[in-house]
Amino acid sequence: MSDPIVEVRGLSYSYETGPHAKGVLTDVDLTLATGELVVITGPSGSGKTTLLTLIGALRSVQTGRVTVGGRDLHGLDARGQEEVRKGIGFIFQTHNLFDSLTAEQTLHLAMELGSQPPAARGDQITGMLAELGLTERARAKPAQLSVGQRQRVAVARALINQPRLVLADEPTASLDAETGRQVVDLLQRRTRAAGGAVLIVTHDPRVIEAADRVVRLLDGKIMANNRRLAP
Amino acid sequence: MRGAPLRLAWQILAHRRGRLAAGSAAVALAVLIMFMELGFFHGFSDSQALLPPRFEADLVLMDWRRVHLNEWTELPALRLAQVAALPGVAEVVPVYNTAMTLRDPLTRQLRSINTLAFPPDSQALRVPGLAELAGRLKVRGNVLFDARSRAIYGPVTEGTLVTLENRPPLRVAGFFELGPNFSHDGTLLMGEGTYLAATGRPPGAPVDFALVRLRPGLEVATFRRQLLAALPPDTIALTPEEMRRREVAYTATVVPTGIIFGLALAVGFVIGVIVCYQVLFNEITDHLPQFATLQAMGFGDGFLRRIVLHQAWLVAVIGFGPGLAGGWWLYVELERRTGIVMEQTPGRVAFVFGLTLLMSFAASLLALRRATQSDPAEVFA
User: Residue A169: its chain B contacts at CB < 8 A?
Assistant: First the structure.
């Protein structure tokens, strides 16, 4: 069996320190294997987003161990965290696209983080936009796109550098059923092709249905970690 | 990733053209203020120092108390004779310089005017028009009028009779060009004889300056040492260029107006920093989620800093052009109206451009604090 993409062991996290500190995450264990699409569900305040930000090297690990692609995140400085994040594709609930950039320009900017020379980027961008049904909207700015189209551009931005790990927060929330399914298929296909994994925080049944595993968080603890059975 | 911050900085700015135009216009205004204050500052000091570089002399002698040109202390005529007797001296030319009042022939109003006098054959001054007309100054009662004087003396043409205080009228025999300054609105040139008669002074009266011309091959510095050793300590000797520089320095550092213009230049700079900061601050605040997203993606603080720095200098450079053009137009207009020469020399343009870049850099340093406040983890919140 190949090494897991993400391995979390005994992870605890608190936003405050001292005697009154209240844990947001408590002793969490989680593994993402190559090719897996894992969904995290749970009520608001259960620690889903905190877990995502810790795995995404957006916060420093306090207690426990988190490894991403074999790299231990504990004790990493800001530069080290940046390096880890370059290998992760992030999809946020709010797309946060620059209103001045076209879809094509957004992907060009994201590819500045990759290793491909500028001259070789065009075909990859064209292919990505085509896969997400955005070929006709390549030169459109966010204001000229529907909410769903904007979210698809954000998905393309996360996938364009072929990351081994994709972290997504409600990626289908603003998409219709058909597009949502397409996006989940694409996430799965692309990350599997890249030998990676996808971790999604969502309540969308369409995504849960497509997941290999569903993790349920409650009050910072994992209450269930079930492999979804094929229908 | 080298060109990406500049490209993104420009794309962000260019997307909101109205805001970019307003920001650049405000920077242009700050640039214009800096040009105006610099123009006043140099126009003031340059115009006060108009005379010394026009003296045809190796050295200019004056009373030691004359720390600037408008300090009316005189030099005894005896000093001229003493200097003329020194070996190596080709010629010593007396120059008289005083402010007098001229009566407007039409309105009868009295106006102050600068008068300069010297022996007509001495070629004391190097000013346009004088060489051709110097002979006319030999006629007692003839004067030359500065064609660039401010238009406050009434209509003056060749042949006009002008009256200095309560003296007999003098005849304008032609024109030369020197220009006014902040002390004098115009200048009259006259021969030594006319001057002494007009002021009621006897021959051998004290002079204001003595122009010393040396024989060819004599080194000025060496001669000056000998000269000062031979004279009592009431006389100083400066080259025309030293006189000019001394006058500029005096005007810039001692005269309140020079200090005021210098301070106003600083105010223009500060206004520019504030305006530039405001433009950057608004851009950053509007794009905080996007900047946080870039950080979350793995772009470092350095990338964000470069975006802000590029935005700063882009706004500054865009604003500099109109500021430069506006400054040039105002310089021309002010020179036309006041006669004071205000020049946009390459050095001064480079100086203001440097201040503009410094201004944008200072503003970006202030604004950067805001840009790097974005927390990438908040993007998931």
Answer: 380
The pLDDT tens digits for A87-128 are: 999 998 888 899 999 999 999 999 988 877 878 889 999 999
pTM score: 0.75
Kindly provide the b/e burial profile for residues B313-337, where b requires at least 16 CB atoms within 10 angstroms of the residue's own CB.
bbbbebbbebbbebbbeebeebbee
- B45 vs B182: CA distance, rounded Å: 9
Terminal C-alpha separation, chain B: 29
Inform me whether the C-beta atom of residue A116 falls under 8 Å from chain B C-beta atoms: no
Which residues are bridge partners to B210 per DSSP?
B61, B94
Domains and CATH numbers, chain A: 34-59+84-227 (3.40.50.300)
Contact residues, chain A, for B287 at CB < 8 Å: 98
CB contact under 8 A, B300 and A82: yes
**CA distance, residue B368 to nearest chain A CA (Å):** 18
Bridge partners for A31 per DSSP: A7
Q: Is A86 on the interface with B (CB under 8 A)?
A: yes
The single residue listed with the structure tokens 């569903």 is A214
ipTM for the predicted complex: 0.89
Q: What is the pLDDT of residues B245-265, one digit of tens each?
A: 998 888 878 777 777 888 888
Judge contact between B183 and B44, C-beta under 8 A: no
User: Do B379 and A101 make contact, defined as CB atoms within 8 angstroms?
Assistant: no
**B249–chain A nearest CA distance, Å:** 51
How many alpha carbons fall within 13 Å on the CB side of residue A71? 17
